[in-house]
What does this fold into?
Amino acid sequence: MRAPLQRLARNPHHLRARYPFLRPLFLQRWNSSLSQKPGAAGVRFPGAVDSKFTSALQFEHPSTYPAIPTYRAMSPEGDIIDPSFTPASDELALRMYENMLSVSIMDVIMFDAQRQGRLSFYMTGQGEEGTCVGSASALEMEDVVFCQYREAGVFKQRGYTFDDFMSQLFANKRDHGKGRNMPVHYGSKALNIHTISSPLATQIPQASGAAYALKMQRLTNPNIPPRIVACYFGEGAASEGDFHAALNIAATRSCPVVFICRNNGYAISTPTLEQYRGDGIASRGTGYGIDTIRVDGNDIWAVREATKRARELALKDAGRPVLIEAMSYRISHHSTSDDSFAYRARVEVEDWKRRDNPITRLRKYLEKKGVWDEEKENEARGRIRKEILKAFAQAEQEKKPPIRSMFEDVYEEMTPETRAQMKNLKDVIDRYPEEYDVSEFEGGKDSLSQ
Amino acid sequence: MGIARRIFSRTVVSATTRKVVQVPKQSRQRPYSTHPPTARLNIPTDFSTTPLLAHSSQSALQNIELDAEVRNGTTKRMNLFQSINDALSLALAADESVILFGEDVAFGGVFRCSMGLAENYGSERVFNTPLSEQGIVGFGIGAAAEGMKAVAEIQFADYVYPAFDQLVNEAAKFRYRDGKEGRHVGGLTVRMPCGGVGHGALYHSQSPESLFSHVPGLRVIMPRSPIQAKGLLLSAIASNDPCIFMEPKALYRAAVEQVPTGSYTLPLSKAEVLKEGTDLTIVSYGHPLYTCSAAIEKAEKDLGISIELIDLRTVYPWDKECVLSSVRKTGRCMVVHESMINAGIGAEVAASIQEDKDTFLRLEAPVMRVAGWSVHMALMFERFNIPDVARVYDTIKRTVEY
It folds into this structure.
């Protein structure tokens, strides 16, 4: 009964008769006939329909392609250099400036707090405030955001408060994550930002799927406003398989998602030269058939404008993904568990801090417009610092979440196994009260009662 | 990986049409791994007579787990892939948020489970993805996080490992880490064909259920029959927890029974006592239940004993109470599964039995495991690896004679 494959290929009708369920497949293939036309200049292989024949044997070498340019709207001196670009209102510019300032001051305070042992871990975003605040300012509140972990500026721009930051960092009873996640793993349903998880790049294909969901929901209910997904990740994370999976599936399924890569030169100690050999992350976008742009991440106007345009593009027609590579420099250590001077020169860091920085660049712009000055700067810095320290002190004193939180939310409902284990823990604490300090947890050991 | 998969799927399609075409004499296909014709115990399962399948409409509708409306309805003869197709079709019809995707699902799937669905429900809801398992599951998690009921297919359970990170670190922990925000990916169901099929060798035979049973947050389900497959799959899709739904591929065409045509669900994390008995409890799930049933029939006749057979249905979180109360009654227990013995489901069941004070005191014999050996599935040796009737029979004998 098993005809040799060649015979099946010669006579597909025979195959169809024998395997009637294959009919739709074969019809589909025959209808999209890609047969070669005699004398045609173009190749009609199904895998690359627009390719032309050439009689010159030549490898495509990356160096024969120019590096993708980096878009700037504003010079390092704070002057608008793209004549076709009009910056947003001063009011918005001031708000963005204050948000950048807020996260940078918070970073300094929390970094020191970790050094004093007052919290277990922290990650700063120094040097990347412009990428985060600028892109977030171009999104709508309904847009869904996936982050990596160095995007405090996105949270701040969307309305995350110092109380929210501090509750999460101190994992107290007001922490929305119920004290389960490491510090800086923020999340907010109200702000449409998914909770951060440590595994790198896992959020990227999730962003593609979420974008597909938004597209489907609008297809079935046109009253829903058009929405996109914005997904942030570093250039190191882009080496993960999930990056590849995400961009490829987003392109093939036409998902309205904007991928925002923060290329800050380092993944912990690994410089980009050991991360990739191509033209950064941007050059990969076109390979997946994705509209791509590289921008100066220290230029908040460039980031904002690119994100705004990317959002429009992503919503065009049936939806499509867009890739933004925002170039910057990681001024800070990777995290509080890292001393970056072990792998890079202090002078290099100082140079970036001084020479080009998203905060000072926007400050120059604002000062040139006459809406900002030294006095306002000092007032703002003092005020923000005070607000942060107040939230810090309150959050630090707050009780920890009930111990019961440890057992909840594994499943929608607690399983009999989990209930039994919770009772088990309660019994141990009852028998060995001197071994466990439960006083700092809301409700003490009583929360473990059924 | 991709190449191997496609070659294999073609073999499956052709091999499975054998019955329809009826030209066995010309057949050059020979199963690699079979038992000799003289065997008394290892006789191929006769699915047309096994008591584990509902051969009549009445027996199908007797099931008290079905609600009244379904029990008063009609049934239709279906094999396992048809009942899965029926369940998927009902889910797509009932809820606009259900989407179905994976490698080659649009033309009907290499096992025909999604046949006709793209035509009926549109290419936006039933579609092919690029060949990337981590992408498929990551995409499904994202869609579920935004309120969709995402039914993802992994072409073979053997290829789920690229998606292991997404399942273990992301899907399973999503609700937990989101805390008070309350978002979850309960809408996610990941279907995957699993188990031996006679010639699947290393990468078309695996059953990785115990790897997932080590992961709180996931529900791991394996049906044994078309009725179960439909009811459990509809439950998995409706469930607010992410579910791994493993389909024994050897049963896709082999297991045929009368399946209620209405939409119905069967409870998750609840075992089913298939046959009551007093001397020994056998715990199993999926395909080996047929092996157990055949061995029980022989052993009860030969040894004059009465054996209780339990189908776990959901292997995690599993129905411990059902198993423990049975063992407290019978005093003896053995666990049978196809995947490897080491750290398998049997280990968890056996440990739970001896850990329970009341059950431990009632034990009259050690808890025994009959499972795949701790080796890989070699092409030529499958019949020596997967628990067969002889091995189950022998263990029954040794357990009751202990």
In short: Confidence is low (pLDDT under 50) at residues 6-28 of chain B. The radius of gyration of chain B is 21 Å. DSSP finds 18 helices and 14 strands in chain B. Residues 220 and 244 of chain B are 5 Å apart (CA to CA).
